[in-house]
Amino acid sequence: PRALSSVVALGANIICNKIPGLAPRQRALCQSRPDAIIIIGEGAQLGINECQFQFRYSRWNCSTLGERTVFGQELRVGNREAAFTYAVVAAGVAHAVTKACSQGHLSQCGCDHEKQGFHHYHQEGWKWGGCSANVRYGVEFSRRFVDAREIKKNARRLMNLHNNAAGRKILEERMKLECKCHGVSGSCTTRTCWVTLPKFREIGRLLKERYSAAVQVEPVRASRLRQPSFLRLKGARGYQKPADTDLVYLERSPSYCKEDAATGSTGTRGRRCDSNSTLTDGCGAMCCGRGFDAHRYTRIWQCNCKFHWCCFVQCSTCSEKSEVFTCK
Ligand SMILES: *[C@@H]1O[C@H](CO)[C@@H](O)[C@H](O)[C@H]1NC(C)=O
Ligand SMILES: *[C@@H]1O[C@H](CO)[C@@H](O)[C@H](O)[C@H]1NC(C)=O
């Protein structure tokens, strides 16, 4: 609401023309729904933040060389990392829009009004109540807005659309039912239930799993048309399509060891690493064998604080020598 009034004050035209990298249909949607564009921006940021969290211990840390857009940096190569980024941003937008609807922050949506009152599918003493999150609205809004940036008719478009849809599908599958019991001393003679959004962290974790299991695909051109019309699993016999919730990629990923503008890799120079870990955050893997620098410092803090009657607190000073390591 704070942001909304400032948007309306500024005028939808000015705002929508100032946002870099919007496709024509996105700009049109922005102008007709200026209140939603703020929520869309927040949703995209939610996705990008989650991406950085999930990849904080990996060589690729969700930063990419390239132009910044509303959806983070542009990813030129259609690899696994691009697949994750598209899925998490599409899910982030759907999550943010659904949440805004439930909170009454968007003018054209609210709680899911189909989930109100008694429902014939459920047993006696069971009814919908409270505010059920309208995830269908959020998903549809994300589809209309996020997918509208895919204007080139190529294989990459098919890849991006598939990953956008997979991210939203995973969100939809994780919607939760919450219930409250009513009746004498908690006897639960009647139950009121409503649908809630999962925490976005859970979606991030699931998408990270899908990222690890991502499948390579290739475009298939229908005979008479030049444009690729669908994707199939690479190397599979026949036309086996990926599953709805698979993340798909067209190209292999680089090692992300060195900076490389062609792949968008920032490299790992200067990244922090753990000298004891043998996992991806260990200096061996993170620094790709180039070695690392140690920085020693002393950490000082207040400790052993005691409350004295009355009324002051006395603390001692503690210190600890510490070391951090960064890749050469
Ligand atoms: C990711 O790594 C790059 C290159 O080392 C660094 O510049 C950037 O700040 C890191 N980003 C995050 C979000 O940690
Ligand atoms: C790494 O291991 C050394 C010795 O085994 C230990 O002294 C040090 O505290 C460990 N460092 C970290 C960051 O866990």
From TrEMBL:
Entry's transmembrane regions: none
PROSITE patterns from the UniProt entry: WNT1
CDD domains named in the record: Wnt_Wnt7
Compartments where found: Secreted, Extracellular space, Extracellular matrix
Keyword Manganese tagged: no
Family: Belongs to the Wnt family.
Name recorded for this polypeptide: Protein Wnt
Protein's organism: Tetraodon nigroviridis (Spotted green pufferfish)
High-level lineage: Eukaryota, Metazoa, Chordata, Craniata, Vertebrata
